[in-house]
Amino acid sequence: MPAQIIDGKAVAAAVEQEVRADLAKLPYKPGLVAVRVGNDPASEVYVRNKARKAKELGLHGTELVFDALMREDDLLSEIRQLNRDNNVDGILVQLPLPKQIDPKKVIDAIDPAKDVDGFHPINVGLLHLGRPTLVPCTPAGVMRLIGSTGVEIAGKRAAVIGRSDIVGKPVAALLLRENATVTICHSRTRDLPGIVREADIVVAAIGKPRFVTAEMIKRDAIVIDVGINRLDGKLAGDVDFDRVREVASWITPVPGGVGPMTIAMLMKNTVTAAQKRRG
Length: 279
Ligand code: GUN
Hints:
Blueprint: E1 4-5, H1 8-24, E2 31-37, H2 41-57, E3 60-66, H3 72-84, E4 90-93, H4 103-109, H5 121-128, H6 137-148, E5 157-161, H7 168-177, E6 181-185, H8 192-196, E7 201-204, E8 222-225, E9 229-231, E10 234-236, H9 241-244, E11 250-251, H10 259-278
Parallel strand pairs: 1-11, 2-3, 2-4, 5-6, 5-7, 7-8, 8-11
Antiparallel strand pairs: 9-10
Helix pairs in contact: 1-10, 2-10, 6-7, 6-10
Bound molecules: guanine.
Guanine (GUN) is lined by residues 92-95, 117, 137-138, 166.
């Protein structure tokens, strides 16, 4: 029997309903500011969608756009101003940034209590200590999708393919927190297919279209595809979906899997940040 499809749109809609319910209990409107510097076409779409979804759910969503030639110091001042603004609960600076701006300095400047991307070193540290914190949105979405299968994570072997700060490392920390035995695979890993083939849960986040083939997948594994690649003018994940579907028990499609989850989790983080900061 082919794998069951994990419906990211449906799970994201459920998360959005939770956000609406939480908002209904608050006497104020949490504020989210999405900052973009320059005109990267993908970033334009992402930032617009984040601000739009915030408004749709009843948050105060603002898009703040700056010139591609902006100076680093000026961006840092803008962030400090957002840190001081009591109506701002969540601050997100879309990456990548133009080359004259050091993303580390920008992330470090964000108040950790408003860091709804979960990228600040304080929040990364708390995550790896297994302490409550704002968790990066895509990894939080991945966990929610795995949770939607109802399959227990504790004791399972998990392979995370890719070691980025945005996806691979935080996903690994979250799986470990749920008591999986986690291996992070990357470009220098020896016998990557052999390691992935032992995994009950596979998270692919490498950015190479159809990198994960059916031969790498253990029968009845759960396969989560974080990849968004262009291949022959179409969107393709990191997983060879059609073949892997014949081996796995559960699998996410691209599009319609992890993608819809990221913004939903961002909205959830913004509400969490507001509740925590405002008491
Ligand atoms: N660029 C790619 N992914 C992300 C993300 O999750 N947040 C931000 N701010 N920028 C990104």
